[in-house]
């Protein structure tokens, strides 16, 4: 957007330089999302560079989070070396970067997301100390809402902070800076020229409504930097996966905000690029960079894309792997459309296999809907990234024991990454007081090791919080489910995954069940095979299934049909939830 208005822009991918110096494997592990949610290791490593003598004691952090030593040791990094990274190596590395010719720029901007914050603050301070006349701007997800206001207040080397989306205000800010304006006051931008005290000012940049107006991402600087530091030798077989944004907000959250979710901050209203524009954007990225993988950063797939976008992608015949976050309420035809478009992985927000817990979450799905998604994703070779979450006020031990009992029936489907307690996220309904059973909300203790209390108000900058929750499941019930999940995962890691397939022919059906040993073969014929077939593609209400089978020429009695459904359920061939039944076997594929 800046180049379109005549500005010359350089993007500095310092993450690539750090990966080279630290080692790609160590870099990826240190920046892992689980670290962000618990230890803030990536932020802590730069805290000495950012806050100097105010930074906390390294040994106290390691005592609080001994797990970071295990992460470091995986890459041959000792405790002493990890401390040295934080105390000397990273400050020296940033100091060298700060000595580059930053004077050639009229404005230096930092976009901060995930664990990019402290390193960016440290470098910005060093640049400002050497070149105090260069204006410095910050923005990004870490600067949304009160977080940005507090970061701006606490770091006087930041001249401007964009709070919210930047497409409308940032080009205007750059224009005014380039014209040499000395006192810039803009709606949506905190500046040192604002007359209102930043810590109390409520400010948010206006959101862009038509995402089609946003240019296609320009990754030229990224690939030039990658090539400069080794290209293929640096990647060592890893593929480059470009990030694109087709939509913002969440169309489900705009109607029913999931109780634990803080994503989208104050911008929940859903906006999406047209399917035609999305296709053109993919085509442009493929043509310009010859990549083979694209990941959408959207929080949820626009359902319109299941039509025109997927059709155009399928017809293109390009070699491409796509990733989307989707809602779990996708049927067989919709999952097939995604697969035909080149989607090889999805994150569907399954979160649980308990209908009661999902209702508490306000997910708009239930157990049988989630299992349907797992079944058809596996059938169409789409990987599913998911977890089982716990810790929701109102949940019962029974909810987790039922899941533990259900899991052996699902061993042929892709398992979750694990069972994890929820954390309270800023901007979520739980954070905003939705539940009277969540109390004593306070920043996770890792924040206090990163941001000095005499400099930064952690209660205003934290995104992840600890809290006391009542009316939640017992540790024993969670342990039972965790054990079942670990067993499920181990079966998939062993290389010989459990399977369950159904072969079908005229008037007959045969199920080959290898979910456990010994394998078994179940044969059905006539109306019994027909009854199972009816709930293969999609779940059916029991009453509807009985009615459809009862319409056959040689119809059995309702009692016989119900007895057959009960037998199939008791033998683990189908599941029943809230009066609906769904066949677990996948269609046989040769």
Write up what this structure looks like.
The chain is built from 25 helices and 23 strands. It is of the alpha/beta class and 590 residues long. It folds into 3 domains: 198 residues, no CATH class; 221 residues, Aldolase class I (TIM Barrel); 88 residues, Orthogonal Bundle (Arc Repressor Mutant, subunit A), CATH 1.10.10.10. Strands 5-8-9-10-11 form a 5-stranded parallel sheet. The model has no long low-confidence stretch (mean pLDDT 95).
At a glance:
By secondary structure, this protein is of the alpha/beta class.
What features would you highlight for this structure?
single chain, 590 residues, 3 domains, metal ion binding, rSAM_sf, BchE-like, iron-sulfur cluster binding
Helix content: 25-40%
How many E strands? 23
**Can you tell me the overall shape?**
globular
> Largest beta sheet: what is the strand line-up?
5-8-9-10-11
- CATH C-level class of the largest domain is Alpha Beta
Number of domains: 3
What is the straight-line distance between the termini? 50 Å
Calculate Rg over CA atoms.
27 Å
Write out the CATH superfamily name of the largest domain: Aldolase class I
- Poorly predicted runs of 5 or more residues: none
The number of helical runs is: 25
Tell me the CATH architecture of the largest domain.
Alpha-Beta Barrel
Q: Structural class of the secondary structure composition? A: alpha/beta
* Beta-strand percent range: 5-15%
**Average pLDDT taken over every residue:** 95
Major sheet details: 5 strands, parallel
CATH topology description of the largest domain = TIM Barrel
